[in-house]
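Protein modeling request. Please complete all fields; requests missing the sequence field cannot be processed.
Requester role: graduate student
Desired output: 3D structure, token encoding
Chains: 1
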Amino acid sequence: MLFVLAEARLGEGALDAGREAMATMIEASRAEEGCIGYSYALDVLDPNKLIIVEKWVDNDALAYHFQTPHMAAFQKTLSGLDIEITELAKYEADDGSPVM
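Delivered output (100 residues):
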């Protein structure tokens, strides 16, 4: 299983301007075969920091994700907004276990 974890800085008005594209991207990504989870969240202490958490079954599923039409449309939409990815990494993990 893979986790993709990212952080982005949101410029003035970027969240409101990109919200519809983000919602479309989340819904389309969650519908992809191989997607276990796909979410965006705002940092409670920094409303200009967007946290992205993706969970994929394997590298093939992630590679497919990057080739989808909705990814291309999303990147095109966001290219005109003041959003800067500040961290982006993928991690391999097992299926996990309960914390408690």
